[in-house]
Amino acid sequence: MNHLTHPDEAELHPAGWAPLADDLEVTRLPLVDREHRLEDGTPLFARLTYLGASRVALREGARLPTRDEVRLLHVVGLQLEPVTMPITGEIAGSERHDREVWRRLRALGWDGGKVVSGAGKHWISGAPPGRAWLAGWWTSQLGRYVPGRRGPGWVQEGATSGQGPHNDGHHDYGTTTILVRQRRAP
After folding, report:
1. pTM of this structure
2. In this predicted structure, which of 28-37, 84-93, 100-109 has the lowest mean pLDDT?
3. Domain count within the chain
């Protein structure tokens, strides 16, 4: 079964928002899918297209992050090593990915307070019409994930110009959505 979350079924995780910069806040976790859960009741992350992610951002009074904001997550957030596998849009792939992400969060003692970096690669703003840009999955060992690359860096570096490899209807097991907005008063 395909796992493509309808924008109306995507919602913020109860952990909510965390500071990202002086005037910005970010979702602590990627958006979750209201309709799909793991066997223990833990929500699956929403798998949205770029268009769907943009629609949810608008509904939430937010926007998709920039590439630099995704990179900032690595600095301020709890860093997870990428969970990669063969590309699939099937729900079984989403379940396998998310089961491992949640296992790692529990192992690290995540209590919902800190923003998480690495729970998927994320849609980023600025793609030309009809296209979609992604950024994420920082690692200290690129060679594990990208043949011919070594040392630390980003598995999915994120475009800042041009077409990028994806159209605006793309989705897969590891593509998740975080949102950014102007910081709200406490």
Report:
1. 0.94
2. 84-93
3. 1
Q: Which two tokens stand for residue 170?
A: 């793309």
CA distance 113 to 132: 30
Any domain includes 1: no
Pairwise CA distance, residues 122 & 67, whole Å: 9
Using alpha carbons, select from 108, 132, 133 the residue that is nearest to residue 119. Answer: 108
Does a structural domain hold residue 42? yes
Tell me, yes or no, whether 12 lies in a domain: yes
Domain that holds residue 163: 7-182
CA 25/CA 16 separation, integer angstroms: 10
CB contact at 8 A, 89 and 3: yes
d(CA 143, CA 51): 32
